[in-house]
Every structure is written in C-alpha cells, then in structure tokens.
Amino acid sequence: MVSRLFAVHESRPNVPKGFSLTGPAAPDTTLNLRLALVRGNTVGLIDALYDVSTPSSAHYGQHLTKEEAEAFVAPKQETASAVNAWLNENNLQATALTPTGDWLAVSVSVSQANELFGTNFSVYTHTATGKDTIRTLSYSIPTDLVGHLDLVHPTITFPDPFGTKPVAKSLPQTRASKRADDCLIGGENMTPSCLQSLYGIPTTPATSPSNMLGVTGYVEQWAEYSDLTSFLQQYRPDMNSSTSFTVVSVDNGTNPQNGEAGQEASLDTQYTVGIATDVPVTFITVGGEAATGDELANVFIDTAAYLLNQSAPPQVVTTSYGIDEDTVSQNLAYNLCDMYAQLGARGISMLFASGDGGVSGGYSDPSCTTFLPTFPSGCPYVTSVGGTINIPEQAVNLSAGGFSNYWPTADFQTDAVSSYLATIGDQNSGLYNASGRGYPDVSVYAVNFEVVLEGMSWSLSGTSCSAPTFASIVALLNDRLLAAGKSTLGWLNPLLYSDASSAFNDITEGNNYACSDFTTGFDAATGWDPVTGWGTPDFTSLLTAIGL
C-alpha cells in the first residue's frame, strides 16, 4: 500500500440516537463500498434541468437525451485518472455503477478499509431492534484525491433500523367479495373508485405504449399477481382483471409468488395498476445486502444507477420509502440528489412519500424536541407527496413535512415559502430551518386504503398510499401529452409552483404536530404549507394547466 498524506473527508460528532458502540469490526469482514467521484459539471446539469422544466422557458419539455445528461456528470479525465491510479496501487477492482463511472463499487476488508481511509470501522448496535451495523464516525481520503473522490459509503451514514411500512389493519374477509361502489366504504375506507371520484381521475384506458410507470420494491417487499387480480375484480370491475405489472430485478432482487406478499409492495402495485388504467407498470425489486431494509441508502443509490443506465426508463417513478435526513451524510444526500436531477433532466418524474412522522420525520416520535426533515423529500429535484384524511379533506397528522437542513429554499418555491412563513411568525421558532427547502409539494388522501394481501382484505395508511396515487395521476397526464404529440412532464416542481398550483384543492385544516408529545408542528394554511404542500390534485384542472 502506497503511503499518502490524509485529510479528514467526512465526520459526525456522535453516534446517532438509539445506537451504541459494541466494539471494533472483525478485520476480515468484507465491506461493499460505493464511491462517488466529483462530477464534471453539476452546475451545468442543474441549469439545464431548470431550463427544460420551467414552463416559462423557451426549452420547456425539451428533455435531455441520456448522452446529453451524461456529458454533464462525467468526471473530468484528471479525476478518473487520479482515482483509478489509487485503486490500482491498492490492488482494488472497481465496478462502474453508472455509464459515466461517477459511481463505483468496490469490495474491501475492514482491515484494508481502515488503512485506506485512516479510520477504524466498528460495530454499532441499535438498542431497540438489536441489529448490528459496521460504521465509522470519521474517515479520511488521501490529500491528492481531494477534489476527485467525493464520497465513500457506507461510512458515517447509519441505517434506518425500522425500515418503512404503512400502518395496517385487517378487514373482515367477507369484504373481499363485495364491489366498492361507495366513496369511503363504511365512511372510513378508501378505494380506487373513491379516489377517481374525489380527484376527477378518468377511468378510460391509457393509449400510449411508450408511457410507463415505475414502482420501487424494497426491504423484501413483494407483490403477488393473484392478489392484484382479486383487487381488480373487486375494485376495478371495468378493467381486465388479468392486467398486471412487469418485474425488473436490481441487485438480484426477487418477487416470489409463494404467499409472502408485502404490505407496501401490494399497496403500491395495486393502486398504480388500479388507478393509472392500462399504463404499463414496472415493479423494480431491489435485492442484495440492502434487501433487509438496513441499507436504504444503498437501495436509493442502486435504483437511481439502474434508471440512469436505461435508455428508456419509466417516465414516472414512485417510492414509498425514506430516511430521516440527519442519518444521511450531507455528501451522500447531495450525490443522490444530483442523480435525481440527472433523471429529471431526462424527463423522469421522481416521486417520494414525505414520511409518516409529521414533523418528527419518517415515523412518529413524540419525544422529539426539534423538527426532523426526511430524505429524499428535502432534495429539490424530487416531488414530495404528503397526506390527507376525511372528506372534505384535512391534513392528516402523520403527513411528514417541514424544511430541509441540507438544502436552502428552492428557487421555484421562494414566494410560496415566504408567504407561509409570514403567516406563522415566531411560531415554532428555533425548531426548524426557516431558510430550508420546504416540503411536501402536494398531497393525496393517505388513510385506510383497501388492499388485497394474500387473499385477505387489509386497510393500510400512510403517505405510502399518497405517492403511488399521485404517480398514477401524473402517468395519466403523460399519456394525454404523448397522445397530443408532446413531451412528458419530467421534473414537476417548477410546474407545480407556477400557475398550475391553482389546479390543486387547497387544504387549510389539520396539522402535522408530532414533537413534544404532539403539541408542536405545522398547521395547514391557505396556499402552500409544509403539511400538505399545494393540496390535492384535480385532474381536469391539471389538464388545463399543462395545455390540454
């Protein structure tokens, strides 16, 4: 190993809440690392993204080709040469994860990683779950790689030990044979027909064969075809009940049909197929070491890399998973956000559920004393979807929303955020970053969605209900655009914060109080707010807003 001078590259001041140090990691344990190289022209990429995504731009809708987007992110020759020379000197074989080689994968032992990065990888245990993970609180890189090597992961980013699942409750089996004709069955449970009525979603089949909708499947969550058939027979009797989804595998992901259907995967596939009538749906199942749910950051990296490698990825991708922002290193968050920007520039709408913990983050934690934003919702280049309840709709208190600590208020939302902050004055002062990117951007109903799971009817709740529903609406809008010879919507946010904001039903009641035993949080308000965004969609008004 060549001797080099080191510079501290990333560090965190302490062990995250809930974790404790167990001891040093075994020297021969293999670490599967992902390396991010400094990109050649990220500023140019973002400028191009805004140019093709802002309705007032002369280039609106003229999305970049795969090659044009890659030209912005390809590392400079001196960067690639410096990193490759370092890898060769240490007898390491790296695999490119992306076409441009800005992301690499490499496997090393703990002992070698400790020498390569001037650190000490250790085992940390999560007290509540008993799960162990190997991490470090600080690592360094050779000084001659500063400005070339941007990130080493996993290092200081700790896993989410709980993963993300919707809140579930079983329903009487007799319901499985009933047709859902009423909006909110029993005054409580949501169905496709109710969503169609609520938001004016058409039931007519989509017609464009090139239009696609992607659903991500993580943490060993799988979807069974037989459950989808039963769901369509029950809730969309006007559709062909044999309508299904295709499956693509990332990291050897699987989708077994053996009675192990997952709540999240079933919810996401049933409501995309069942709402986006005849839009081809692709279930992207991700396996590997991330499959257990401990490594959601790895899942996000590998999913984005998969999409970037495709010549024609789905134009809408919905993800019902997230991570508390403070558990993700800022470098990792920025690198992932840049991947989403690249996808957006190519005309792909990346949608994420905002989270189910109100202002306490991804899941409810009333012991929190400051508001905790979620990732990727804080990334300005994704569209974050919050949740509502009741008819007429109100904000549901689980709807995660607030302001990022990593990204400033985005250019497209300056006026909307300023207006909201002016209405609340000093309320919650010091509990959140008033200069941060505000989210969610929009909302959809989020409570008691009826789902068929292993032949039984269940009711599921969370913003993981909202995201696939809104994704289905975007996919149906794309179908109309393609039929008219126009481009798909791509990155949505500049459109949503333009005159199109009037195409949403403003939600002015409710809150997402979660911290200090549910006594602090944000209130829904007139206009945009950090609980429901602009509100819930009206399909007919959205057609007008996009010029149809």
TrEMBL record:
It is found in: Secreted, Extracellular space. This is tripeptidyl-peptidase II. GO terms for molecular function: metal ion binding; serine-type endopeptidase activity; tripeptidyl-peptidase activity. SMART domains: Pro-kuma_activ. SUPFAM superfamilies: Protease propeptides/inhibitors (SSF54897), Subtilisin-like (SSF52743). GO terms for cellular component: extracellular region. Signal peptide: none annotated. Binds 1 Ca(2+) ion per subunit. It catalyses: Release of an N-terminal tripeptide from a polypeptide. The keyword Hydrolase applies. The lineage of its organism: Eukaryota, Fungi, Dikarya, Basidiomycota, Agaricomycotina. Residues 189-548 form the Peptidase S53 domain. Secreted tripeptidyl-peptidase which degrades proteins at acidic pHs and is involved in virulence.
